[in-house]
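User: Some background: our group keeps a shared notebook of sequences we're curious about, and every so often someone picks one and asks for a predicted structure to add to the entry. Today it's my turn. The entry only has the sequence so far, pasted here. Could you supply the structure so I can complete it?
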Amino acid sequence: MSENKDRFVSLVRSINREGINELVEFLEKSDFYTAPASTRFHCSIPEGLLIHSLNVYVMFEQKRKTEPYKTVLGNISDDSSKIITLFHDICKTYMYETDYKNKKIYSETGSKKDEKGRFDWQAVEFYKVNDLVPYGHGEKSVMMLEEFIKLQPIERYAIRWHMGFTEPKENWNTLGSAIEKYPVILALHESDLEATYLLEKDMKSE
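Assistant: Of course. Here's the predicted structure to add to the notebook entry:
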């Protein structure tokens, strides 16, 4: 078991929610611990989804300790914090597969061509999307989680809308209303962005 996986499982097993053991068993059988978080944008590396989930948890926990979120998130339980951060992207389980493409490679002289003017090529591995359950993003994570555990309303809303204003424009009015009802949505969305652009900016495949 990797250090990241060990930490993740320890956090999940500390959640006091009926069905959590069954959820852990599902994750163990899935590709959650080895999958990337994206094809090429962030954490597009083996174990990327696991790393990203832990990073979002770290950023969210920092918000719980500082204003203005300290007051806004005062009623969020430890269990809810772990559920919405560690599982916001569970929808990416069984979503990516590996394939190969030809890539031009440089010679020792720095040229892509050999002495006869021909390009040198190398087969490189890359990730591509193969979504076996096309049910959206946040809503898909909610659906998958509730096959194992009962979510509280605040958890459903946070996970469903965690993409924030990267949602299609036609959803922005509904999103705004949801944030007014549950400001935790904004905190989770910001934590997601901070993990992506600050902690994981160099964690990309070539």
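Suggested note for the entry: The chain has two domains: 3-92+133-199, 98-128. The first strand starts at residue 96 and ends at 104.
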